[in-house]
Design a protein that fits this description.
123 residues; mainly alpha; 4 helices; 75% helix; DUF4233 domain-containing protein; DUF4233; transmembrane
Amino acid sequence: MGRRGGSYALPNTNPMRVVMLTLLLFEVVVFGLAVPVMILVSGVPAGTAFAAGGVGALLAVTAAGLLRKPVGYLIGWITQPVGILLGLFTPAMYAIGAIFAGLWVLSFVLGRRLEQQTAARAS
């Protein structure tokens, strides 16, 4: 595709960018809250839980901060499987991570459709 940022990013003018930003910020909160669940419910050692949840939260907050650039979307795409993989430490995160990943993909697809509609109206 001839777009800046490749096929994995949306332009800054696309309204779905705000939705994707919000998803990433919610992921930061959920990944952070997963840490005590990993420790208290699943019996994961504290260091492992903080490392796993911290990596997920750090990726999400970094992606959110850089979402105006294509690299932010790339990090956001990487964040989604990390959220699902947190299920290795506490099984509920399989479902929660999959929900976030599904919402991320849906938001991206809808953003692309908005782009196509805007381009069709302009021509």
